[in-house]
Hints:
Layout: H1 2-11, H2 14-38, H3 51-65, H4 71-85, E1 90-91, E2 94-95, H5 98-116
Antiparallel strand pairs: 1-2
Helix pairs in contact: 1-2, 1-5, 2-3, 2-4, 2-5, 3-4, 4-5
Amino acid sequence: YLIGVFFVVAFFPLDIAMPAIIILAFADSASYIFGVRFGKTQHPFTNKKFVEGMIAGIIAGFIGAAVFIPWQEALAASFFAMVAEGIEIKIGLTDVDDNIVIPLVAAITISVIRLLF
């Protein structure tokens, strides 16, 4: 968690880093809780997570991030962060923790949207 927060604060301006951190806090927690409690449909990218958890994470991340940024950016960042959470990323033989992936993907998504629009 701390490494993911450090990366987004170090490499992105605070108006992008803050919503990315909120998405990490809200979406990751909600996706785990709802996935464990209500999960029935396997996530398409991993057998360790559930689609219900991903949807709950998107909603929770969106709500948290929408306090800081426009709703379109919040929705896109939450969506792509939760999709990326389900992808098992490896560097060599080591799995990259989703607490690093989620805020980075959210921050990159917000940055790209701002560049394009």
